[in-house]
Write a structure and sequence with these properties.
Elements: H1 2-6, E1 20-29, E2 34-42, E3 47-56, H2 61-79, E4 83-88, H3 91-98, H4 108-118, E5 123-128, H5 135-144, E6 151-153, H6 162-173
Parallel strand pairs: 1-4, 4-5
Antiparallel strand pairs: 1-2, 2-3, 3-6
Helix pairs in contact: 2-4
């Protein structure tokens, strides 16, 4: 995180006004035979919510990352967000999304589901973000490793996320 503060442009950046940015990530715990996903939604000025979710039986990183993106779109839809930028640090998911109409990937059915879910959103894009700019989402995903149920936070920020969110805010104070 200190590199994000020292090197502007390497950390999370807020979305344009009227947009919500959702960052997602996944974690794998092979010894437990499960994957986990998590995400954080923020506007240009505020925290909009976060969640984490265990994926029992999912040990493939690509599948877990794609499921986390899907859950990010579900979160956006449930919250009624109309303009969404979804970021993931999994470049393979971003590339597969761009080629989804021709994909024969193992995650093609999940990409179809993401497309169907996103069709109700006015503006929707999936883009790649560096791992250093995806810290809070990663923390949510790894937090899911310790639980067996889905958790979400809408009106309050979970304590385990506060320092990471503050680091993003302070890093953006240096970016002009």
């Amino acid at each position: 995180r200190s590199h994000a503060i020292l090197l502007p442009g390497h950390g999370w950046r807020p979305p344009d006004m009227e947009f919500v940015k959702i960052n997602t990530d996944a974690a794998i715990r092979r010894e437990d035979g499960k994957g986990d996903g998590g995400g954080v939604a923020r506007s240009a000025s505020s925290f909009q919510g976060a969640w984490n979710k265990p994926y029992p039986g999912v040990t493939d990183p690509l599948i877990a990352e794609t499921m986390a993106v899907r859950d990010g779109v579900i979160f956006a839809k449930l919250r009624g967000f109309s303009k969404v930028v979804l970021e993931t640090d999994c470049l393979e998911v971003v590339n597969l999304w761009a080629a989804r109409h021709y994909s024969r990937s193992i995650v093609a059915p999940i990409l179809v589901e993401i497309g169907e879910l996103a069709s109700t959103v006015t503006s929707f894009v999936i883009q790649h973000v560096s791992r250093s700019a995806n810290g809070p989402a990663h923390i949510c995903a790894t937090h899911a490793c310790m639980i067996d149920v889905t958790e979400s936070w809408l009106d309050n920020t979970p304590s385990f996320l506060i320092s990471s969110l503050l680091a993003d805010c302070s890093a953006n104070a240096f970016v002009k």
